[in-house]
Amino acid sequence: MPVNCSSCETQRAALRRPKTGHSVCKECFFQAFEEEIHHTIVSAKLFQPGEKVGIGASGGKDSTVLAHVLKVLNERYNYGLELILVSVDEGISGYRDDSLETVKRNQQQYELPLKIVSYQELYGWTMDQIVKQVGLKNNCTFCGVFRRQALDRGAMMLAVDKICTGHNADDIAETVLMNFLRGDIARLRRCTAITTGSEGAIPRCKPLKYAYEKEIVLYAYFKKLDYFSTECIYSPNAYRGHARAFLKDLEALRPSAIMDIIHSGENLSVKEDIRMPVQGTCTRCGYISSQGLCKACVLLEGLNRGLPKLGIGKHTTNFTISSWRRNR
């Protein structure tokens, strides 16, 4: 039997929201989804009028929905932001080259500027080349470290005030689980923060922090947004995949589990006598780091010296700046 929208009570319901369980029509869903993101932005004071904001754009559903919604809200509520798409080309044949075509189409569709930075130009390596060296077991370690820094480098080139990423509620809940299982107190303490990097780096914020992945997919589907849906060919062995599978099982039993885990992370308190990493800068590249050398420089040194596993694990080796320059 057809069910009417629980919001407007006139239109026929087109979907049931995974987040709330309410049956709503498409228009009411769009409005509710966008207004919830607007509330997140306003309540967390993510932006100030006149700021130049970079949007991390991969061509996937999260970043595509983020770009679309930010453009809509920027115009609807007169945020006064200058929005720019920033993409990272990791150099993965048959995956990133295809997804970047989607990003280029988004650039035209949303009429936003686009900056693409590549691992090849920044590090002298592509992910395809890195995988040939390190295999599939630890490749996500390299990619995660390099991609984070590459996005910052691209943002610095554009002189943006903030970077927005498409991390959603599922992503953050997965990260809480991963850090808990690893016993990584430092990351566990800050992984639920909606804004990071305000101590010196370009601040990063997550406007989709409380948006469920399923609802992002529904929004993209009903809005007929153009996005790339293929998973990275190198990611099946990623540790995050196990946390994701566990979270999906929990969500099937209790849909609020995602938000419950996030709130648990937000309310975490750490004993005062626990030593936390002190943020400094890398002695080589100047990037933020809690060690003398940032993780990217250590990993890159290993690759250039033919010792790709050098930076993986708890023990790393210090190198002189001169040796690093010789091996660049």
Question: Layout of helices and strands, plus pairs?
Answer:
Blueprint: E1 15-16, E2 23-24, H1 26-43, E3 52-56, H2 61-76, E4 82-89, H3 96-110, E5 114-118, H4 119-123, H5 127-134, H6 139-158, E6 162-164, H7 169-182, H8 185-190, E7 195-196, E8 204-205, H9 213-223, H10 239-253, H11 257-266, E9 280-281, E10 288-289, H12 295-304, H13 321-326
Helix pairs in contact: 1-9, 2-9, 7-10, 7-11
Descriptors for this entry?
Cytoplasmic tRNA 2-thiolation protein 1; EC 2.7.7.-; globular; 2 domains; UPF0021_CS; alpha/beta; disordered C terminus; 328 residues; 6-stranded mixed beta sheet; Rossmann fold; tRNA-binding; two-stranded antiparallel ribbon; transferase
**The CATH top-level class label of the largest domain:** Alpha Beta
The averaged pLDDT comes out at 88
Task: State the share of residues found in helices, binned by percent.
Answer: 40-55%
Strand order of the largest sheet: 5-4-3-6-8-7
Query: How many separate helices?
Result: 13
Describe the structure.
- The structure is a single chain.
- The chain has 328 residues and is of the alpha/beta class.
- The protein has 2 domains: 27-274, 3-Layer(aba) Sandwich (Rossmann fold); 277-328, no CATH class.
- It is built from 13 helices and 10 strands.
- It has a 6-stranded mixed β-sheet. A two-stranded antiparallel sheet has the order 1-2.
- It is globular, with a radius of gyration of 21 Å.
- The relative contact order is 0.13.
